[in-house]
Amino acid sequence: MKHEHLLKSHQLKATPQRIAIIELMYHTGHISIDDLYSAIRKKFSSISLATLYKNVHTMLDVSLIREVKIPGQKTKYEIEKESHAHVMCKTCGELKDVPFNPLVLLQDTTRMSQYVAEEISIVISGVCPSCQKK
Ligand SMILES: [Zn+2]
Ligand SMILES: [Zn+2]
Predict the structure, then answer these.
(1) 13 alpha carbon to ligand 2 midpoint, in Å?
(2) What sections of 2-128 are H helices per DSSP?
(3) Distance, CA 22 to ligand 2 centroid (Å)?
(4) Which of 18, 44, 47, 134 has the most neighbouring CB atoms within 10 Å?
(5) What is the per-residue pLDDT across 73-124, written as a single tens digit (0 to 9) for each?
(6) Which option is the CATH number for 2-79: 3.90.850.10, 1.20.1740.10, 1.10.1740.10, 1.10.10.10?
């Protein structure tokens, strides 16, 4: 129900496939298109990769979801939420959100480079607590 509302509040028709996509993103936190595709096919066996891409891009266009670009990995997608950075474990591949306010960084960068900043993405890689114990 909540996910249906999310689609409608972005002026998108809440189709069963779209609801399933949002649900998968919500439960995994971050998901690649490949993982999304194999998970969604369990429910909608006839969905094509092209249709899935189309739905994902429609949701990107209205900023319901966003891309998370991770160096050396496939792009993942997540539901749009308050700004945060990502920490990624080099051992097990875990990707987690960490609270982060980019405002100061954006202001400094804009001032120093004279660029009009549009997007900020921060991924910090390292070793997660459970991999440190191994
Ligand atoms: Zn790990
Ligand atoms: Zn995230």
Answers:
(1) 25
(2) 2-9, 16-28, 33-40, 49-61, 103-113
(3) 14
(4) 18
(5) 899 999 998 889 999 999 999 999 999 988 888 889 999 999 998 888 889 9
(6) 1.10.10.10
